[in-house]
Amino acid sequence: MDSIGSLVLPSVVFLIIIFGFTKKVRLFDTFIEGAKDGIKSTLLIIPPLVGLIVSINMIKSSGALDMFTSALAPLANMMGIPDKTIPLVLLRPISGSGSMAIINNLFSQFGPDSFVGKVASTMMGSTETTFYAIAVYYGSINIKNTRHTVPAALCADLTGFLISVLSVKLLFFG
Q1: In terms of residue numbers, what domain contains 83?
Q2: For residue 20, is it within any domain?
Q3: Is 101 buried (19+), middle (13-18) or exposed (0-12) by CB count in 10 A?
Q4: How many domains does the structure of the chain reveal?
Q5: How far apart are CA 86 and CA 70, in angstroms?
Q6: For residue 10, is it within any domain?
Q7: Residue 70 covered by a domain
């Protein structure tokens, strides 16, 4: 299986070169043009990402994350969400690396096979870093008005969080 995986990338590159020659595409010029567009996209993405990273660090450092966790614990318990996963619920739509740090902490505290560990793992797999994705994709094409994107994506994340708890309860602890 490893040999197949190591052949995929060279095969794709080879097929692109063959396709380019048969269609008489100037491959190097096309590659350079794509690289220029990539650099432009990177420059458009940097400001929203810097703002997002600064915001995340401010939320963590100020203690606001702990304050929000305490405030949401009764509501989360009412909905069946383990209160230890609330920081994950709050940070997952914002930051992949921040939520990964939280899940590692949950694993070290409760173990990956515990109820909290399984719920956190399922949450990580069934939700998205919504604001990061919007910052990257909308920033790359310079869209400022997200209209219905944020509410729809947050509803999808909330659904993912709730169904994660329900799935773990039914499949592992039911």
Answers
A1: 39-172
A2: no
A3: middle
A4: 1
A5: 9
A6: no
A7: yes
Rounded-to-integer distance, Cα 98 and Cα 124, Å: 11
What CA–CA distance (Å, rounded) separates 134 from 153?
A: 10
- pTM for this prediction: 0.70
Distance, in Å, from the CA atom of 154 to the CA atom of 142, rounded to the nearest integer, reads: 21
Residue 167 near residue 122, CB atoms below 8 Å: yes
State which amino acid sits at residue 44. Answer: L
Q: Which residue has the tokens 């990956």?
A: 112
Query: Six-digit token pair at 112?
Result: 């990956």
CA–CA separation, 29 and 35 (whole Å)? 10
Nearest to 84 by CA among 165, 29, 138: 165
Average pLDDT per consecutive 10 residues, the chain (174 residues; last block may be shorter): 80 90 89 90 81 80 89 90 92 87 92 95 93 85 87 94 94 83
Q: Got the DSSP string for the chain? A: -HHHHHHHHHHHHHHHHHHHHHTT--HHHHHHHHHHHHHHHHHHHHHHHHHHHHHHHHHHHHTHHHHHHHHHHHHHHHHT--GGGHHHHHHTTT-HHHHHHHHHHHHHHH-TTSHHHHHHHHHHHH---HHHHHHHHHHHTT----TTHHHHHHHHHHHHHHHHHHHHHHHH--
Residue 103 forms part of a structural domain: yes
